[in-house]
Structure formats: C-alpha cells, structure tokens
Amino acid sequence: MSVNAAPSREAPPGRWVPWLVIGLWLVLAAVMVPLSGKLSSVTTDKAVDTLPASAESTKVAVLEDSRPGGEDNTFVFVYHRAGALTDADRATVERHYNTLAKRYPPKTAGEDDDGSPTSRSTDGKAMMFTLEVSMTYGGPEDIVGPLRDAAKDRPAGLELEVTGPAAIDGDLDAVFDGIDLQVFLTTVIVVTLLLILTYRSPVLWFIPLMAVGAAALTAMATVYLLVKAFGIVVNDQNSALLTILVFGVGTDYALLLIARYREALHHHENVRVAMVHALRGAAPAIVASAATVVAGLLCLLVADLNSTSGLGPIGAAGILCALVAMLTLFPAMLVVLGRRIFWPAIPRFSTVVEEKPGLWGRLGTAISRRRWVATLGSLGILGVLAVGLAGNTGALRAQDQFLDAPESVTGFTVLRQHFPELGGQPMTIFTRPAYQERVLDIVKGTPGVAVAVPGQTSGGWADLSVFPTDAPDTAAEYDTIKRVRTAVHAVNGAEAIVGGPSAENLDTEVTTSRDEKLVIPLVLAVVLIILGLLLRAIVAPLVLMATVIVSFAAAFGGSVFVFDTILGFKGVDYSVPLLAFLFLVALGVDYNIFLASRAREETVRLGTRDGMLKALSATGGVITSAGLVLAATFAVLATLPLVMLIEVGFLVAFGVLLDALLVRSVLVPALTLLIGRRIWWPSRLSRPEELPDRRRPLVDDKEPALQR
C-alpha cells in the first residue's frame, strides 16, 4: 500500500534556532556539571534523618546525639574458638582491647573502672568487648576497616567478628560506596547497547545518549540545589533511582521523537520542517507522560518518611530535566546533523510513501478477529502471575539486606550463640531521673526482655540499656519493643521513650505502612484525572487504570515467586511495594498514554476500530523498544549487592516488560475493540454521528470491518 505525500510548503524555522538551543545548553552545562558532582556530599542514610521528627525512636536518637559522646559509634568484638578458649586467647583479647582503647580513647572516662571491659561466655568458647569510638575519628565506614585490621594478630584457630550497630552501618556504607558512579556507567553501557541494536546505526545512538547524559547531570545538580535550599533528604537509594529514572525515561522520549521524526522526513524535504511536525505529533504525548510521572512522584510529598517524601521532588526534578532536554537539546542536535545521522538507513523524502502492515499490523488484525480470546488470555496470564502474592511477602530484616552476609551480620549470629542475653540489638530508654528505678523494674518484668541496666543521668534525662531475648528485626523482637513502650508509657510523669536500631526499623516499617495507605489512593486519583483530561473521556481512563493495577498485581506476584523460590530472599523490603507501585503505575500508564493518545488521534479520521489498529501498528515497535530500554535501565539495580535494590530493579523491570509486551500490546487493544466507540464516552467520539462519513458504521462500531 502506498500513500501520496504532498510536498511541504511550510516556512522552515531559522537555521540559527538549533544552534541557539545548543549554545544555551552549553552555558547551562558549564554551570550545572560542577554542581552535579556535589550530590554525594549531601546524601545521608541515617535513620534519624529518614524518620519523621515525631517518631519515638527519632526523639531518642536526638537525645542521644545531644549528650557527650552520644554520637559515638558502637562496635562489638566477638572472639570465639571451636573448643574452649586458651590462656593465650584470653590474653590476646585483653591486649586488643587495651590497644584499641588507647588508639580510640572514649570522651568520657571512668566508665570501665569497675571491672574488666571484656566478658567471657558461660560455655567458655567466646569472649567479647564493646568499643565506643568518637565521631571525631570518622564515620562507621571509615573506622570499621582499620578496627578489623588492628585485630588480625591472633593465635591460630581464634576467630573474630566485628559487629554491632556501627559495624552494620559501615558494611552498608561500603555497599553504597561509589554506587552512583557504578549505576551511571552501567546504565550508560546498557542504554548504548540497546540504542545500537534498535537503530543499527554506527552514529545515531550517540545523539540520544549525549542528550540524556546532559539531562542526568543537570538533574543531579538541580537535586543538589534543592537539598541545599529546602533540606530535602536524599539517601543513596534515591540518588541511584534518580539516575535510572532520567536515563530510562529520557531514552523513551528519544525513541518516540525519533520515530515521529523519521516518519516526517518521508513527507517533508526540509529537516527543520520535519522536526516541527515531529514535535507537534510527539510532544503532547511526551508532555502528558512526563506530567503523569511528575504528578505521581509529587504525591510522595504527603508521606511521613523523609526518604520517601524526598524521592518526590528528586524524581520530579529528574523527569522535568529529561523532558526539557529531549524536547530542546535533542531535536536541535538532530536537525543540525541532518538526515545523514540515520546512515545507513537514511529516510528519503518522497511523494509516495510505502506503508507496510508489519508485525504490529498483523497482531492488530489477529486481535480484532479474536477479541475475547485476546482479552481472556491476557487476563488469565496476569491472574496466574498474581497468585505469587500468596508467597513470602513478609518484611525483610535489616541483617538480610545483604546479598552476601558481611562480617557484621555473621557476628550477630555468633554473639547470640555464645551470649544469648546480649544477642539482640539493645533498646535505649530515656526517662526522667526521678522515675528511673520504677521504669527499670517495669522493664525487667516485661516479657521478652533479657537484661535491663541503668545508664548515665544528664540534661534532665536518665537512660536505660535493654537487651531483648529475640534476634534483631524479627516479629518477636518488634512485639517486645511494643510491650516495653506500652509499659513505660503507662508511668505517669516519667515521659519515657524507647528507641534504638531495631526500634528505628520498627518505626520505619510502621511509617511506611501508613504512607502506603495515603500515597497509593492519591497517586491513582491524580493519574486518573490526568488521563481524563488528556483523552477527554471517562471510560477510557478507567479501563487504562484498571489494566495498570492488574498489571502491577501480576508483576508483584511473579516477582515474589522469583524472590522467594529462586533467589531465596527472606522477605520483601518495606520500601519496595510503594516504590514499585509508584513507578509501575506512573511509567506503565506512559505506554498506555502513547498508545491511547495516538488511537484518539486516528479515531477522528478512521473510527474507533481502525483508529486503534492504526495506532497499534504505528506505535508498537517504538513503544516496545522504549519498554525494553526502561526495563533494562531498572534492571541495572539488580546488579548491585543489596537485596532491596535487587527487588526494586527486578520488580519494576519485569512489570514494565509485562505492561509493554502484554497489557499495552494485547489487552488494551482487545478491550478497546470489545467496548467500541463507547471507550471515548462522554466525548463526541463516542457518538456514531461524529464519526467520519466514510467510516460511519451501519451497525455497532465494535463489529469488524468485514462484517459491515
């Protein structure tokens, strides 16, 4: 089939316009690139910065930090031997403590004057001591390595694990050390390979990559300025997600624009005119897509968890930078380089353009003939995947976050074996001094508490150290924390508050659960409104949102099956469901926007059935390529050695592929063909009299053309 393409008589924009745009971006880069490198200097992973100020554990952390030595890092040294410890072993432990205590002297003296700082287990196979190291010597990541090196001189057979809260923080920081650069480089490589495979051109791939790279650096600088101006919390996780978002979404926009531009080059001899027409066709859908994602991300501002609410403006800034770059810098670069950038498959101007049905056209015809089969088959596949939600969706413990358990995690296991009374992470309780003894007695009698001892009194507060009997970050330990809180809160006038590492994790989990109940309905409402405004209909947005929700349930269920059965993860991180929902709903709707907006455009000319089939044929290849690119960029997270990032990366990548290859390609067209013109209700396109005269049906528009 061929169609005539009338020569363009439209006056092209001035030659200077693309050069001006490129020049402005060079000026912007000179300002923003130096700032982008400063983003890592304002990232934080401290729980006290992540949790809301109203959380009980946050209040405890603030009180601890306000005391002399309150910000000290706590390390626990656990020595053990398969048999009984020897005299040489015990002498080594004492020597190590004395050496380290001199190297890292505590700020407050006299704490250990009442006896030996080392403790021996009742089974005689282990010894341990606690070392408080001032922040003046550096953070946990700076100290944990030298501490382990200083204790290497040991008798043969004497094992040592350096653990404790600071050691876990140090090992976690080591995982994130250099993660921004790693994610950036890996993402660049992945996107480069996919662009080369997509365009099979030795040069074209480089242009979108340069534009997206400029957007990423600008976004990093913008986020740094937002942090300095508004105190937004940025952790390493959000910093990595920023890079993934900008590269994934920016490349998607590039693919959509190039597809329209290539199409326009066949109809317009002047490349500047062709780009204007390409932007007219692609920009509305791209802007609507960006608006949907930005609106969804900004819904996170209502979250109480600072790291979650911080992701809102961080991600929104990234999406907006990608949008501006791909609608200004990228088109300008394409126009300056001309048609030759597509070599060897250079699109030629012709008054007769051959249109071939192609794979997506044939798929559309098959769906049209078997609408119910396509609909029920798609829903059946999604339903089977959703069954995976019956698997292990329990919360992941902090100690299980590592793909390979570091020394700090294995040390906790050893500590529990030989010192069961100290095997849990300690709780810290602050109370008014006059009530210290009463609170202490109540805590000692609380089920689940192994040891409770009084601490120092200063600044109008007395503190207690409480060790639970259960392993850290387990449901049993959390129950103990809740019981202790209930018990001490009942003491009138004590003003007792309970914190500590596990209490912080518990408060984080509770806050996240509360945020989910608030953010998820808000995201659904906002995205639905945007779809309604874009498509000027009610039925179509409801159908599209329903497919996205079903797709999310299927992606989550399938991912849980992989996490539980194949990868052997011990749960799902508390932050994963909300993050995955946000990305899959906002990004999943993107592909429906690209398809539905094109379908609406074609419906005006061809009617609902042929309009959808034309839209599927025109957008199928580019949207599938966009889905593959976005999935691949999120899959980069699955290469990192942290379970939470692997779960987010895999779930979003799997969900994007599911949405692009099944939901958008089969389910949405099938549902549209089943519903017919009523999909556009209440707009004028839902009324038969508004259809083009040559396409006005004699019967319901749901019937195939062959039956008319």
Describe this structure in words.
- Mean pLDDT is 83; it is low at 1-7, 109-113 and 693-708.
- Helix content is 61%, strand content 8%.
- The chain has a four-stranded antiparallel sheet with strand order 3-4-2-5. It has a four-stranded antiparallel sheet with strand order 8-9-7-10, sandwiched between helices. Strands 1-6 form a two-stranded antiparallel ribbon.
- The chain is elongated, with a radius of gyration of 30 Å.
- It is of the alpha+beta class and 708 residues long.
- Helix 5 crosses helix 6, helix 10 runs antiparallel to helix 11 (306-337) and helix 12 packs across helix 20.
- It has four domains: 1-44 and 179-354, Up-down Bundle (Multidrug efflux transporter AcrB transmembrane fold), CATH 1.20.1640.10; 72-176, Alpha-Beta Plaits, CATH 3.30.70.1440; 359-390 and 512-708, Multidrug efflux transporter AcrB transmembrane domain (Multidrug efflux transporter AcrB transmembrane fold), CATH 1.20.1640; 426-499, Alpha-Beta Plaits (2-Layer Sandwich).
- Strand 3 (119-120) and strand 4 form a beta hairpin.
- It is built from 21 helices and ten strands.
In percent, how much strand structure appears in the residues? 5-15%
For the largest beta-sheet, the strand count, sense and barrel status come to: 4 strands, antiparallel
Please give the domain count.
Answer: 4
CATH topology of the largest domain: Multidrug efflux transporter AcrB transmembrane fold
